[in-house]
Structure to design on (124 residues):
């Protein structure tokens, strides 16, 4: 079983930047795809970005494409989400997750381990 711990969230003004980190422990990390999701108050958890095991393939939600970048450092067992040009609508709890063996990479059901989340608040 893998444990995932997110960090790096906080309060930022619109137009600002943040970098989220997700540290993995407990099992081999370098063979797993990893994703970021977010959940705003009163809304369903939504897909943000996914990266494959080697970091060579990524895919993004249209709402954040061109502003966010997902990356990973397998030597550090860490996946990152660099966020630029933040907007108030990006305000949410951000979760990292490990890809499971089934399900879509853009769906919650495609992931089998989740972190506890980190709050990102963007003020206007």
């Amino acid at each position: 079983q893998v444990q995932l711990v997110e960090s790096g969230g906080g309060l930022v003004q619109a137009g600002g930047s943040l970098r989220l980190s997700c540290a993995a422990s407990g099992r081999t990390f370098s063979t797993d795809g990893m994703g970021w999701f977010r959940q705003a108050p009163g809304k369903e958890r939504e897909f943000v970005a996914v990266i494959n095991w080697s970091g060579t393939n990524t895919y993004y939600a249209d709402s954040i494409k061109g502003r966010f970048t997902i990356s990973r450092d397998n030597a550090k067992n860490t996946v990152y989400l660099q966020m630029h040009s933040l907007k108030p609508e990006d305000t949410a709890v951000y979760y990292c997750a490990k890809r499971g063996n089934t399900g879509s990479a853009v769906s919650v059901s495609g992931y089998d381990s989740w972190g506890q989340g980190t709050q990102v608040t963007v003020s206007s």
Summary: The chain has a mean pLDDT of 96. Residues 3 and 25 are 5 Å apart (CA to CA). The radius of gyration is 13 Å. The first strand starts at residue 3 and ends at 7.
